[in-house]
Specification:
The chain is α/β, with parallel strands linked by helices and 219 residues long. 28% of the residues lie in helices and 22% in strands. The chain has helices at 41-52, 61-70, 81-88, 113-121, 134-142, 206-218, and strands spanning 2-10, 56-60, 91-94, 106-109, 127-131, 148-154, 174-181, 187-193. It has an 8-stranded mixed β-sheet, sandwiched between helices. A hairpin with a 5-residue loop joins strand 7 and strand 8.
């Protein structure tokens, strides 16, 4: 299976509490519900398609519990493509402490997580979707397990909360596969990890940069 991550973030990289004021107040977060006013038909269609076309889901513990308490508790999952997919397809959660998950169809991964994820990816077809789960996404990137990284960036600065990429973490070069913007300014970008970034080996002279840029426009 192809491992794809999909993450909703603000312009300043916050991914916490996007769905509502009480979704995730950990760390004293008080600005929840920032994404909902910006979800337009295009964003909704994209998310419905992304979840609806997934063959299985992989979660970190915190995101799993948020989803289980919301999507997993819907009285009629068939009323939503996202809920229908989440409730009917296999779910895997990485956790060292979750022993008895209540959400039907859940398997807890522990021990050698890299091997467990490799085994899931070894299935010949389909998509293994990782919704949210920031800490898990960073670990997967650091271990070269991500095939595709999708970011939905909302035109808002939150100013507090958990960020997808904190001050220290793995460095990864990305190839932009596609990019588009919705009517409310949500940008949907698909990236492919391509190894380590390249870094300059000497200080760049700003005048040289401007001269090269100007020369390129003339050419």
């Amino acid at each position: 299976m192809r491992l794809t991550t999909t993450t909703n973030i603000s312009v300043d990289g916050v991914m916490q509490g996007l769905g509502g004021p009480d979704e995730d107040r950990s760390g004293g977060f008080e600005r929840g519900g920032w994404a909902i006013p910006l979800v337009d038909a295009e964003t909704g269609d994209y998310l419905n398609h992304t979840y609806g076309s997934a063959d299985a889901f992989l979660f970190g513990r915190r995101t799993y519990e948020i989803f289980a308490g919301s999507w997993g508790a819907m009285a009629d999952p068939s009323s939503s493509p996202i809920a229908a997919a989440l409730n009917s397809r296999p779910k895997y959660v990485v956790s060292t402490s979750l022993a008895h998950p209540q959400w039907a169809g859940t398997t807890v991964l522990h021990g050698d997580i890299a091997k467990a994820v490799h085994d899931l990816k070894a299935h010949p077809d389909g998509t293994l979707l990782v919704p949210g789960s920031g800490a898990l996404v960073r670990w997967l990137l650091a271990n070269d397990l991500v095939d595709q990284l999708d970011l939905l960036t909302y035109p808002v600065v939150i100013g507090q909360g958990t960020r997808l990429f904190p001050e220290s973490g793995p460095d990864v070069a990305l190839e932009l596969v596609s990019s588009r913007a919705t009517s409310k300014g949500v940008t949907i970008q698909t990236y492919r990890p391509i190894g380590r970034p390249q870094y300059a080996t000497s200080t760049v002279d700003p005048e040289d940069v401007m001269r090269d840029a100007t020369s390129g426009r003339r050419g």
